[in-house]
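user: Please review this fold.
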Amino acid sequence: MKQNKIIVVGTGWSGAVISRLIVDELSREVTVIEKRNHIAGNMYDEYDEHGILIQRYGPHYFCTNLYETVEYISQYADLYEHIFQVRTLVDGKYIYCPYNFKTIIDLIGEKQAAVLFSKLRKKYGEKHSVSMYELTNCDDVDIATFANLLFEKVYRNYVAKMWGYTPEELDPGIVDRTPLFLNFSDRKGSLDFYYLPEKGYTDVFKKILSHERISIELNTNALDHISFNEEEKLVYYNNEAVDCLVFTGPIDELFGSRYGSLPYRAVDIKFDYHNEGSVLPVEVIYYPQADGYIRKTEYRKQMLDDSLCTGTVVSTEYPMAYNRNAVVGNEPYYPVLTKGSQDMYERYLQLSKKYSNLFLLGRLADFKYYDMDTAIKHAIEYFGKISSYLCE
């Protein structure tokens, strides 16, 4: 087994999970590098002065069919069931979300909806959901007409604000992440498990990273310390060879953006305190027709116990292009998947394969949209690759 240093860059899900697996399974020491002044990446939350647990980088819900990820998080947190309530404001009316049969009633009324229900059930049988692209291209005029109504009222404007591109310019999978569900369920599609951690996400990450073999360096930009030995085809850290460097940040920045900058979206989040117990009708509202912002979240509504809270806090999210040098928008949230960006990513990926001790992991490094559960599952599975290399 190799016995030099192991570096993990980033303390989000990918970095935290892989670090803990390395120390638990291989009994190796790991140095974790974090650019920010806190752990947990965009999952970071904290209690504010009013006793409200605030997710500083936007709301995150743990909902999944992957029970193995429930078991994983349960090692480090007491989870409570929380089926979050969402609405979308369209033409001054709150319509149901996730988009389903109730949404159809909200938009076109019960009489027309009854006809559409029958057609949808006949057309799609036992399917629990249908993508928007499939619906808008349906050969049934009534189904296609409603799908285009929903698409134009909700999807088009939301996507344009969220991603900075039209739906037609983006990878179809982005729009298809939010299909029409062919039921009346409160749950997000057919997902089985809905949880939040009782003490918040930051506490979960503290416990994952709390190990005598894990050391954490905050306020450190790893890119200032990473170099490449072209002769040996190895990544160095602080001009020293390392056994393994796991990088979870933007892959283009790792290589000095030599092929160009990959597009990521950032979000500017503003928090407003209200001296009352409740402001929004449900905890999350989407605003496809609003100017500039896309979502509001009332965090007190997420809490298991809000008895010690005073007032309530609502966050408003304004998406924008990521710019690492900007005062606002300098944290990348989401990779923007277009044909051009995915081609550019492939060039960076091929370049990364030159260096045997470099491992790329996570939403930014993989240039792929991972939900929380898939990020955890991917890190657990990816550990096998790192373990095989370290144990050569």
Summary: The chain has a mean pLDDT of 96. The chain has three domains: 6-75+197-257+337-390, 86-185, 264-321. Residues 86-185 form one domain. The first helix runs from residue 13 to 26.
